[in-house]
Amino acid sequence: MDSNVSLNSEFKGEIDQYIKFDIAEQSFGIDVLSSREIVRAEEITTIPDSPKFVKGVIDLRNEIVPIISLQEHFNLSAKKEDEKCGDKIIIISIDDTLMGLEVDGVEEIVKITADEIQQAPEITRKYKQDYIKGVAKLDESLLVILAVHKIFSREEINKIKEIE
């Protein structure tokens, strides 16, 4: 039996909307319902001794929000020097903690049916990368679908909460 069929059979035909964004010239997507808003990257205040993947904090309407570099967190290679990094910030909430995901750019909102998402490759499960929900083919490119609530470990969430 095809594992993709059993993975998605109960959701077959359901259409979800995903925010398609880029990090280090790769396309990723998160469920629109996982985000609160998308803001332009403003001045980020660096916090000493914070985890390496935490860029700093911003003031978002009188709320201090930690900004996470997904490029750093995912260990993705840096973009070319002449290209601007961190153009947009996707604001999310995990365990009642607001945080911003710094991304190179938000392209569009795409509609994908559950049966268009293929199970994440075995190698990602081998390395405990269960935040990769699956992979969807869009035109001639692949979109890595992320499960927002699994991107960070419990320990990482606690460190982010301390910054807040």
Please give the order of strands in the largest beta sheet.
8-1-2-11-10-9
Q: What's the CATH architecture?
A: Beta Barrel
Overall tally of domains: 1
Strand proportion, as a percent range, falls in: 35-45%
The CATH topology corresponds to OB fold (Dihydrolipoamide Acetyltransferase, E2P)
Give the helices and strands as they follow along the chain: HEEEEEHEEEEHEEH
**Global outline:** globular
Question: Any idea what the radius of gyration is?
Answer: 16 Å
Put simply, the count of helices is 4
Question: Percentage of helical residues?
Answer: 10-25%
Q: Largest beta sheet, briefly? A: 6 strands, mixed
The CATH class assignment is Mainly Beta
Work out the oligomeric state of the chains in this entry. single chain
Structural class given helices, strands, pairing? Answer: alpha+beta
Q: Note poorly predicted spans.
A: 1-11
Distance between the termini: 47 Å
What does this structure look like?
This protein has 164 residues and is an alpha+beta fold. It has one domain: Beta Barrel (OB fold (Dihydrolipoamide Acetyltransferase, E2P)). Helices cover 15% and strands 44% of the residues. The protein has helices spanning 3-8, 70-73, 122-126, 154-163, and strands at residues 15-23, 26-31, 35-40, 54-59, 64-69, 88-94, 97-103, 105-113, 117-119, 132-138, 141-146. The strands form 2 sheets. The protein has a 6-stranded mixed beta sheet. The longest helix has 10 residues, at 154-163. The chain is globular, with a radius of gyration of 16 Å. The termini are far apart. Mean pLDDT is 83; it is low at 1-11.
